[in-house]
């Protein structure tokens, strides 16, 4: 536990974490409104991005103070789960398509998709460039 958490107490630090998570959620919802352009907001895209980054930093700071460590095995598992959900959704959408379109559809590999890109970026930041996913996961497992 960090010095700030020791000073205000563990319960208060968890309350602070919850508050910061709520502020991050609010900033993210504001960005969704900007992207959708369905419900106008006076906040600009630049302000929304700045707010998301600031609130994320607050959440991360609280987690560090509480000694909460990020487990990259969980990130890998969740990224795989998201990728599988997308695959399943695309397959279900293909199954619902008229027969004429079904014949031209092939399974799509999502490994180059956004989730893998984010995961690769996180792993590169943590373990350096040029590491295979398997090597990075093994290193993450060994670091725990």
Characterise this structure.
The protein is mainly α. It folds into 2 domains: 3-66, no CATH class; 72-143, no CATH class. 76% of the residues lie in helices and 0% in strands. Helix 2 packs antiparallel against helix 3, helix 4 packs antiparallel against helix 6 and helix 6 (114-127) packs across helix 7. The longest helix has 27 residues, at 10-36. The chain is extended, with a radius of gyration of 20 Å. The two termini are 17 Å apart. Residues 104-112 have low confidence and may be disordered.
Primary descriptors:
7 helices; 0% strand; extended; single chain; 2 domains; 76% helix; mainly alpha; 144 residues
Please describe the topology of this protein.
Layout lengths: L2 H6 L1 H27 L8 H22 L5 H25 L2 H4 L11 H14 L5 H11 L1
Helix pairs in contact: 2-3, 4-6, 6-7
The structural class is mainly alpha
Strand and helix order: HHHHHHH
Number of domains as seen in the coordinates:
2
Anisotropy-based shape: extended
Whole-Å distance between the termini? 17 Å
Strand content: under 5%
Largest sheet: none
Mean pLDDT: 81
**Total beta strand runs:** 0
Query: What fraction, in percent, of the residue positions are helical?
Result: over 70%
| Contiguous helical run count | 7
Radius of gyration: 20 Å
Low-confidence stretches: 104-112
Provide a brief overview of the structure.
The chain is an all-alpha fold and 144 residues long. The chain contains 7 helices and no strands.
